[in-house]
Design goal:
seven-stranded mixed beta sheet; Growth Hormone, Chain: A; 27 helices; alpha/beta; 11 strands; four-stranded antiparallel beta sheet; Rossmann fold
Length: 704
Amino acid sequence: MEKKSTLPYLWLFLSGVIALSYEVLWIHYFRLLLGNTIYSFSWTSGVFLFGISFGTYLSTYFLKDKKRDLLKSYAFLELAIALLSLGSFTLLMATPQFILNFLNPHHLLKDGMIAFTFIFPITTLMGLSFPVLTEIFKENYVIEKLYGINTIGGGIGIFLLGFLSISQFGYRSTFWLTSFLNIALFLWVFLKRATFTRPQSEQSDHNESQVPFSLGAISFISGFTLLGLEVVWFRSLEIIINDRAYISTLVLFCVLCILGLTSWLTPKIFKKKLTPLYFLIPLSFLFFLIADFLAPQAFLVSRSYPRVSTIKTSYVILCFLLPLFTLGFTFPALLNFKKWNGVGTAKLLLLNTIGGMSGTLIVSYGIIDWLGMKSFYPISMITMLILLFLIPQKKFKSLAIGACATILTIFFLNFEPQVFIHKRDQVLFSDETPSGVFSLIRRKGKLEIYAGNYRIVATYDTENVTHTQNGLAYFPALYMVDTPEKILTMGTGYGISLGAFLTLNPKEVISVELHKSVNHVSPYFKEANRQWYDDPRVEKVIDDARGYLKRSREQYDLISSNITSPYTTGGSLFLTTQYYQEVAKRLKPGGLYSQLVWGPHLPEILHTFVKVFPYTKAIPGYDETDVIIIGSFEPLKMRKDIHTYDDQWPLYKGKYSREETFEIGEKIMEESLKRKPDFIVDDHYADLTHNWDRGLKFFWIYGP
């Protein structure tokens, strides 16, 4: 065997690139399938890890056959991964209706069954790879370095394919590029397999295959804490820099690169001993303590300008990057502690990945929902104490445990589980769920609703807000022959538009809102929203609105969408060709769709809209940079007098006549459609959420 060949490192690096690129793609398409919530991120990450775990477990049996050509087997595993991924993403890109009908909003069991169906078989095959290659190369290569290069490959793959490729070419093209790399890796390994031979069985008999309970428990707990931290980090970044499609890419990139770096450094630091953990784990403990005290300040300035601030940067470094770095040594230190064979390595990796899956799902479905995101920090401090207790070498143990236990006791005497994004004397209502942080505040005598750090709409009592929110109902009503019997409205906010829909005298209104807390705060705005929350005609649905629309079997006379910024992940998904096609399926003959759209990419959004709806009209929204647009499949003719709703519908900016308002709207739309669009908004591309020149630059500098 070539002792210094770089091929094993290159193969493991490339396999990491491929595996994590698939994960980024799964995260995107599960957003479309399960909704844009932490649930979809958690199930993708959780099942990804569990598949790796199960594959690792199977490798313990796979490796017992001493006559097996392992490199040939590995090559065909990569081929199988490529073929199964083709089937998985083909179905996800155009999900059959029977799968959509099966799903329920935020249903733990059903969400999991779908995630397992699409992801688990593929990641099981991925889980076989590392132990198999370890068995071949263990005599001439350092296992921790092999693990490190595989992990770093995953991080760099996420950045190059999952970020740059997606922003330039879109999700679908990135999948085909990843598949090409997958096939290339299969061919490369298959053609080069004769270069390497498997070590003789007597060589591996001297290596450890039995994992002591204490080491297995350390492996499990470190995985639990690290992946739980990843979920909390994902949620935190959604708040302090706002919801962006690339946040999951950024988080995974940092996590994998740091874990790869710690794996690479472990042989130099640990020297076949676990003693350095007595210093590194208390450091992690200290960082979690700092995180708890720093979090309120970081979130309190989440809306400060410029977007990148010292306090936010410090929070990310002290609360995530540093504990990730110190904890990242734990698992590779276990690999370094003894000379494990492929079976021993597989067992340790199995426990670590099962712990990671448990951390991802428990934090998402349990800790955040029941106790709040900030409660993860004291839980992590407790896990640090358990890790110190489990380390088999006794040196420094009593001192480290005693110091941490004392600090933890003092901490719990002053623990405050809730985190606020605004000054406490301004907060009237605050709630944290897996769908996000929701706040109602009073500032300068005015009430405002926030989803995360994003204000849902401007202050509710300003003229333009009342004009725009009412316009979502009254503008399309002017073009309808009959009273709409059934209305679907997506995005409740203050409830002004929902109250306006009720004045049209429908038989039923379906109100779909992602944040369940909206219903709790609606009474604060009863003078503006006509107390819609007490109207028996309203059916309240808490769900991701696009997912609900996909699963709905009903048809409606009028559908309306009032979603947040187009440059958030959730908002952009309500501006794509595929979304408008879903709306079209749910409209009755002669039905209308109304939506508020805005942003520097207004021409692209309107070109996408008219591609689906052949007949359109527009009026200005909050300003001349945004419009309320209505679409139909039949010619739009005004059926009521233009002044029908004057008593209930404020004039635009309080001064323009109704006729002038309609003229302004048509002019905005005409000028936007004259401009050649840079792209058509599509589910399979990332033009809005990744576009810096006109989109993110505007949002980053000027704020929500």
